Amino acid sequence: MRRRPLLRRTPQPLASGGSRGAGGDGVKIAAAQTPVFWEDVTGALAYARGAIAQAQDAGASLLCFPEAFLQGYLVEPEAARRAALDLGSSAFADVAGQLPEAGPLLVLGLIEAEGGRLYNTAVVIEGRRLIGRYRKTHLLKSETVFTPGEDCAVFEAGGLRFGINICFDTNFPEAAQKVADQGASLLVCPANNMLPRAIALDWKDRHNPVRGDRCRETGLWCLSADVTGAQGDGVAWGPTALLDPAGEVVAQLPLDGPGLLVVDVPGF
Prior knowledge:
Layout: E1 19-22, E2 27-33, H1 41-57, E3 62-64, H2 77-83, H3 90-97, E4 105-114, E5 117-126, E6 129-135, E7 154-157, E8 160-164, H4 173-180, E9 186-190, E10 195-196, H5 197-203, H6 207-218, E11 221-225, E12 228-231, E13 234-237, E14 241-243, E15 249-252, E16 259-265
Parallel strand pairs: 1-16, 2-3, 3-4, 8-9, 9-11
Antiparallel strand pairs: 2-16, 4-5, 5-6, 7-8, 10-13, 11-14, 12-13, 14-15
Helix pairs in contact: 4-6
C-alpha cells in the first residue's frame, strides 16, 4: 500500500466576496458550490461559464463542479435515460462547444450513456476537448439505474497530478488508494448531497471527516465540490472544501449558498 508523506499546511483565512480563497505558493485549484439544475442543461452551462471565468481570473489551473451537475442527480430510470449523454455524440460535442475555449481544466459531473448503460460520470475537459472520464465505482442502493465504473485514471493540471472519486466512493478506502497508487497528490471529489432534511442534518458535519480519513490513509489532498440550496423536501449544505494530507480542513465555503473556492496546493 502506497502512502504519501504528510505535508502539513497552516490554514489560511477565507477571503470575502463571491469566492473564497486560501493564499500561498503552489498550484491554484478551484471548486464550485452550485445550485441544483434539474434537467436544465442550458442553465447549468450558463452557470458553469460564469464560474469558469471567475476561476480563470483567479489563475486556477483546475476547476471542479459537483456530481451530476450538468443534468441534475437523476436516479429515476426514465428521467436519467432521457437526460443521459453519449460522450461520442454530437449532443455532447455541442455541450462541450458551449464551454469557454480557454480557462482551467474542468472536472464536471454528468449522466453518461454508452452501449445501453448509464453511468454516473465525471468528465475531464480541456479547451472544449474531452481528455478523460471517471465513472463512479461505488453506487448507493438508490442508484440502480447506473452501472458501476471500473477504471481509475489520473490526470494533470498545472503540474499537479490528480484522480477522482465521486461522492459515495470516498466511503471506501480502496477508491482513494487507487488514486494514490498512481502517483497522484490530489483527490478530486464531485459530490451531490441534496438529501431529505433529516438525513442532511445528520450528515451535515460528517462528510469532511470521512474524506479526512482518506487523506490520512493515503497522504492525498482532497478537493470537494458540492451543491447547495433547497428543492422540495430536500436540502443541501455542501460541503465544498479543501482538506490537507493530515485530514484537516484548509478552506471551506459557507454551507448556505453558491460560491467559488479558490485555493493553493503545493506543486509536486
